[in-house]
Fold Polyisoprenoid diphosphate/phosphate phosphohydrolase PLPP6.
Amino acid sequence: MSLTKPLNRSSPPHLLQRQGSDPTTARLRASESPTRRRGSGSSTGSASGQGPPEEDGIRLNPSLIRVALSSLLAIDLWLSKQLGVCACEDSSWGSVRPLMKLLEISGHGIPWLAGTAYCLYKSDSAAGQEVMLNLFMGLLLDLILVGIVKAVVRRRRPAHNRMDMFATFSVDRYSFPSGHATRAAMCGRFLLAHLVLAAPLRVLVLLWVGLVGLSRVMLGRHNVTDVMFGFWMGYCQYNLVEMLWLSPQTLQGLLGQSVCCFKYI
Ligand SMILES: CC(C)=CCC/C(C)=C/COP(=O)(O)O
């Protein structure tokens, strides 16, 4: 505030002189009454040529952050509206909507959970089962974490969105973060790390992740920041999956413990 506030020119010059020449007195005055100091703050700091008092800098920061955040939010809303070109059939890119919906299905939780459970069931190697089991756990973890963040943040979906998604939870009426973006980022990293893929396929995985994110904004389901945060969250979730990795030994231990519990009951 003191940076934008003009100097108190009405203060008598002898007073300014005294405060400037006697820093001890000025400091004592400052500690006496913060309210009074605020009134004459600019003459205390600036007139003595020492720059604004430190406290003023601290008061300035939150408002700067607030301005920066609201500007970012305004840009986000504007950009998301501009990019929401497939929000309905009669939007400017309405003809591409079916393709975007196909991308939506490719990143939906149900096909991923069902596909992983099927691969787990069909896998005849211990290593394959281990990978699929951990992917399955990762998908469940993703649903839980995204649900929690959505329920806490409660950001509404863009006004131009038509809520015609299949199989949603009640928290999915909120948009932050994009569950498709977290899943795509987490599964993309998982596939690249655990499957031996040729270079073109690796590029295809990355392309798919990016397109799933873009389709969320183009369909009008999300704002850009929902998707960006979703990608970051999914990236971090993969680290969590690695940290909590269930090895066959851990599994055997867990199964053994639960069998013991059942016997005990
Ligand atoms: C019913 C199951 C298993 C998952 C719901 C998946 C879903 C619809 C998430 C919402 O994604 P966005 O936040 O990207 O819109």
About this structure: The radius of gyration is 29 Å.
